[in-house]
Amino acid sequence: MKENFIGELYSANKLGRNIKFIMKQRGISIKALSREMDVSETSVNNWRSGKALPWTGKLPRIANFLGCNIDDLFCIGIRAGVHVTFKPEGKNV
């Protein structure tokens, strides 16, 4: 059980760092993302800090709003210097 908890914390932290990074790169505010996702700003802050994970049903909307794909939210290798390839504005994938 403890191993799963550690894995969840790692995933939450990685997802949070990536959301934060992509938001910064795209100039998206916490307020804008919270409004788009219909959640509180506190929820978005908790995602960004790794204190909580967004509901999985929201991941496609989060990715679309941030202009990336779901894989980018988890696996973009930000710390390794890999750059996110953003979708063009207004494109749904």
What does this protein look like?
- The structure is a single chain.
- By secondary structure, the protein is an all-alpha fold.
- The protein has one domain: 434 Repressor (Amino-terminal Domain), CATH 1.10.260.
- It contains five helices and no strands.
- Helix 1 packs across helix 3 and helix 2 crosses helix 3.
Mean pLDDT rating:
79
Residue fraction in strands: under 5%
Number of individual domains: 1
Q: Which class of secondary structure composition applies to the elements?
A: mainly alpha
In the CATH hierarchy, the third-tier topology is known as 434 Repressor (Amino-terminal Domain)
Unreliable residue runs: 1-6, 78-82
Please give a handful of descriptors for the protein shown.
single chain; 93 residues; mainly alpha; 5 helices; globular; 434 Repressor (Amino-terminal Domain)
